[in-house]
Amino acid sequence: MNTIHYTKIAEELNIRQKQVSDTVDLLDEGATIPFISRYRKEVTGSLDEVQVAAIRDRVQQLRDLDKRREAVLKSIQEQGKLTPELEKKINGAETMSILEDIYLPYKPKRRTKATIAREKGLEPLATKIFEQESFDLNAEAQGYVDPEKEVNTPEEALQGARDILAEWINENAELRKKMRALFIEEGIFTSKVIPGKEAEAEKYKDYFDWSEPIKKTPSHRVLAMRRGEKEMFLMLDSCPAELQATALMEETVLKKAANTAVEQVGMAIKDCYKRLLKPSMETEVRLYSKKKADEEAIKVFAENLRQLLLAAPLGEKSVMAIDPGFRTGCKTVCLGPQGQFLSYDTIYPNEPQRKTAETAALIKHLVDLHKIEAIAIGNGTAGRETEAFVKSIGLPKNVVVIMVNESGASIYSASDVAREEFPDQDLTVRGAVSIGRRLMDPLAELVKIDPKSIGVGQYQHDVDPTALKNALDDTVMSSVNGVGVEVNTASKQLLTYVSGLGPVLAQNIITYRNEKGPFKSRDEIKKVPRLGDKAFEQAAGFLRIRNASHPLDASAVHPERYGLVEKMAKDIGAKVSDLMTSEELRAKIVLKNYISETVGLPTLQDIMEEISKPGRDPRERFEVFSFQEGVNKISDLKVGMKLPGLVTNITKFGAFVDIGVHQDGLVHLSHLADKFVTEPTDVVSVNQKVEVTVMEVDTQRKRIALSMKSDPFAERGSAKTKQKPKPKVEEEGDMAAKLALLKGMFR
């Protein structure tokens, strides 16, 4: 790769060039981001996962640019038009847009107005006019009149010349660069409802007559307007003022004082703008704003997903899982400590059957029979009613009852993964199993579901699907490897995300485990078919084996460093297992004595931290959460109520909170804290337990406005609560309706 690119990336990320080049070498060798950031700190200078991913993505962009550059050079060279000056310009192009601007005059075209004019022999006339000198325009144009070429009058000759001029102006790389900047800096998104569709487009009401500078439009509004346009409810424009644009063109193109030739060029400028340059620039700026909006939405989605995946696990406990319902009853399964399926029943605690005595007796029997320690209840239809019933039947105090977010459970239950796991059970049983298992270990269960279906995204159906998938895959891989995977109990889906594995090797590990029994050591993993040295190097540190022959096999210490840890133990007259249990022994180790060319202080510190808490789960400890008793549906809410809630989704304009009424409420950005907040993620995270105050309730439209302020009803303009002015769509006067509307638009 061009070393100039390394310098460029280093400057952009504010790191050293060698860090970039060494990281690129590791990536090119097939190393994964989790492996590089965890086990190659000496090589990269301790770059974290975010920095390594940024290098990977930027390198790919620059390589794509180089590939396109080669194609452009080849095309122009084949035309015999490549000059040293042009080649220098092409090689100096730093973005794809600039490169395409340079290439535009040489790009093979379909038959255009300018092409037709050239065929009529009018290019010399266009050239003379473009010099903008004073001459007898009509007499000159008369010389190009030729009925055989379908040029019957001087005006027809001038029109053809202007068509050629318009194309030349459109292909002016300097002008296109200026115009692009103008569209981005001064462009205005203007949205209007398509006449006659006002009723159908009610959810887009805020955009019926809306305008906002492109550079200030937040991600969610860009995506909302584009969706409204796609659904043919809105007309969307994205241009600067026309006079401003044509003035810029005249300033760039016109060279002389007014004369007849200059007038012709001026006419060509206006034609060029309306017919060629404006559509081209509008397309570019829309792609630019869409890309920025996608990046922001994907960033929010990925962070929400990370927080959901890394939610505190209940752990290895026997669990009863209930998928609640009314008419068809509640599907109930019991699971063992490793999530194994034990039994299935349907219970009817709710209307219309309401078999309360029979249901209570069965639940108590199952709790006793399977030594149930926790009951997981899905938070969907009949969830709160079922929770209230279960809590009322007098279960042992050691049995906790917990509501579980069931988003995506139905997707899992109908998937190939679920059919493979439970071929003899129907959808409802599989859904209940998923609810129970996601309480025990959210990460292990949620990796089985397409991340887009988990319900924590913002406009996930509107963003670039490839970019979204790549970002979410990165997030899942980072989360899985950050926690570590027990190789003897992990599912194929969980193993798939382990660094260096993938679906084929994950399946091979499962097959080997089923045939040979549990792995007794990390070294045994090498015996798995097709799992070579490279894959083992990438994966081993993230795979755990409890009660293995080597004590470090249960830790995040990489096998390549076992010898180093054994030397540490030997040097102080101890065993590795002693080091892992004795803080006093670890204190005797002088790390600087073990620094070498390949092992530096960062790796040594990681090793010491890991052997002090081998295999420790980095996720938070599980805490039982309960919603407010007696508040089960939206009609139970009253303005001013203070309620416990769980953050379910975070957007750029606020956070959605589950308060147990089957409809999440919105805490707008301006009500997330007493202080001014610019980024919701600075104050809340997915699954965070919060206390909220009910501000407004619209029962008919199922919209709830909440606040996390200590005194949400205080004077809005007071010094304590004053917020920066918000654009029209987020005015506080109708906050509940307008902002809840936004949620409906990205569902």
SSE arrangement:
Blueprint (H helix, E strand, L loop, with lengths): L2 H11 L3 H12 L4 H7 L1 H4 L4 H30 L5 H9 L3 H8 L9 H7 L3 H8 L6 H6 L11 H17 L2 H14 L1 E6 L15 E5 L5 H12 L3 E6 L2 H12 L6 H50 L9 E5 L6 E6 L5 E7 L8 H14 L4 E5 L4 H10 L7 E5 L4 H5 L2 H6 L5 H14 L1 H5 L18 H19 L1 E2 L5 H5 L6 H14 L16 H7 L3 E2 L17 H10 L4 H4 L3 H4 L14 H12 L29 E10 L2 E5 L6 E4 L20 E10 L4 E5 L27 H12 L1
Parallel strand pairs: 4-7, 7-8, 9-10, 13-15
Antiparallel strand pairs: 1-2, 1-3, 4-5, 5-6, 11-12, 11-14, 12-13, 14-15
Helix pairs in contact: 1-2, 1-5, 2-5, 7-12, 8-11, 9-11, 11-15, 12-14, 12-15, 13-15, 14-15, 15-22
Structure description:
GO terms for molecular function: mRNA binding; structural constituent of ribosome. This is RNA-binding protein. Residues 708-733 are annotated as: Disordered. Residues 158-185 form a coiled coil. With 747 residues, the chain is α/β, with parallel strands linked by helices. It has six domains: 3-106, Arc Repressor Mutant, subunit A (Orthogonal Bundle), CATH 1.10.10.650; 110-185 and 243-312, Orthogonal Bundle (Tex N-terminal region-like), CATH 1.10.3500; 188-239, no CATH class; 319-440, YqgF/RNase H-like domain (Nucleotidyltransferase, domain 5, 2-Layer Sandwich), CATH 3.30.420; 496-612, Orthogonal Bundle (DNA polymerase, domain 1), CATH 1.10.150.310; 634-746, OB fold (Dihydrolipoamide Acetyltransferase, E2P). Helices cover 47% and strands 11% of the residues. The protein is built from 30 helices and 15 strands. The strands form four sheets. A five-stranded mixed beta sheet has the order 6-5-4-7-8, with helices on both faces. A five-stranded mixed beta barrel has the order 11-12-13-15-14. A hairpin with a 4-residue loop joins strand 14 and strand 15. The longest helix has 50 residues, at 260-309. Residues 717-747 have low confidence and may be disordered.
